[in-house]
Amino acid sequence: MNYSQQRNCILEIVMSDPIHPTAEQVYEKARLKYPNISLGTVYRNLNQLSEHGILKKICSSYGSVRFDGRTDAHFHMICKDCQRVFDVELGEMLGLEDKLMDKFGFQVSEYEISIQGVCCDCKK
Amino acid sequence: MNYSQQRNCILEIVMSDPIHPTAEQVYEKARLKYPNISLGTVYRNLNQLSEHGILKKICSSYGSVRFDGRTDAHFHMICKDCQRVFDVELGEMLGLEDKLMDKFGFQVSEYEISIQGVCCDCKK
DNA sequence: ATTAAACTTGAGAATGTTTATCATTTTTCT
DNA sequence: AGAAAAATGATAAACATTCTCAAGTTTAAT
Predict the structure, then answer these.
(1) Is the CB of A75 less than 7 A from some atom of nucleic acid strand C?
(2) Does residue A58 reach within 7 angstroms of strand D, measured from its CB?
(3) Closest chain B CA to residue A101
(4) What is the 3-state secondary structure of chain A?
(5) 0.85 cut: is pTM over it?
(6) Which domain holds residue B53?
């Protein structure tokens, strides 16, 4: 990857704010600095950055893909209504439902662990 | 929810085959029995069934949403290449990476736990 | 510094997925 | 059987994401 101002700006936007933005939200923020930046550029760079492991993609089966600048081990708590993504630390997983209700007032309805990688067929 | 033949067929398709199909895949199968069924009907019913907790939506940030007829506790292993979704039993999580490599030849690159529910703002 | 190759961009078209609309049909309840 | 509620098929619309390509940047080697 060569350096580019736009990619740098996009990275900073995602890194500096824990809102787990969608591509559209990154676009809106990036336009403040680069009014002519195109949405395609934002998508292209978000994907490149996550392919390089610098950002992480977060999926939620409701609404758009989101991006996370935190790459250390933590979990995500996703509101089915407003679709915001909240961080959950490892320790908060013990006694999950009660703890999340006490701490965040978050009513857990289900959780899902997904493991990503390459299957034996595709490795060939 | 009233009874409908089409919804019943859709439910059976998802329940009877562990491929974790996309809406499009369900549509193709449903057309064998109901050649005039519309894709909209498939989406409508898959969403209704998962809102009622009868099916589960699976997201993967690559490709389309998928649906799962299994509602007991288990995890998903998603190939970043072909995007198929494989089931992982609870026990297989202990010694995760080595075990999944031994058993499935699956190269883990990252995993993500996401908790879904309703946040304190939206509960109002 | 100049230059060529590789990379990146903005603009917009194209694709793909999912939802909404609505007249008609099916199901449910009496 | 008949009215009300729900579901359907067809299609349009909305939304999210990727692709294309000419023009502009960055890089590394002269």
Answers:
(1) no
(2) no
(3) B120
(4) CCCCHHHHHHHHHHHCCCCCCEHHHHHHHHHHHCCCCCHHHHHHHHHHHHHCCCCEEECCCCCCCEEECCCCCCEEEEECCCCCEEEECHHHHCCHHHHHHHHHCCEEEEEEEEEEEECHHHHC
(5) yes
(6) 5-123
